[in-house]
Amino acid sequence: MNDPIAAGTPAEAFPPPGRDLESTVERLELLEAQVQALGQAMRALVQGLEDIPDREPDPERPGRAARLAHELMLAQGL
User: Fold this and answer.
1) How many whole angstroms from its chain centre is CA 49?
2) For 13, which DSSP code?
3) Among 35, 32, 43, 31, CA closest to 69
4) Domain residue extents for the chain
5) Fewer CB within 10 Å, N side or C side of the chain?
6) Rg (CA), the chain
């Protein structure tokens, strides 16, 4: 029997079929970049929605923040 999983080797020890270590590293780097872009987009939204006590409310501020968040996500391909 040539099946390493059936022979008692844990399935986690083997990469998915058709995927090598380099593609896994590339996928991880892409995921990290996407998480960073989502974090930046969330930060832009929060800053656009928070009230600043010493300033007059700007009714256009949330819209600008939403556009910035959208542009950040688009730039990353999200």
Assistant:
1) 21
2) G
3) 43
4) 21-50+59-78
5) N
6) 22
pTM: 0.63
65's tokens: 């923040």
Distances in Å between the alpha carbon of 8 and those of 12, 15, 73? 12, 16, 44
The 3-state secondary structure of 57-71 reads CCCCHHHHHHHHHHH
Cβ atoms of 70 and 35 within 8 Å: the answer is: no
Other beta carbons within 10 Å of 72: 20
Q: What is the pLDDT of residues 5-58, one digit of tens each?
A: 555 666 666 656 666 777 888 889 999 999 999 999 999 999 888 877 888 888
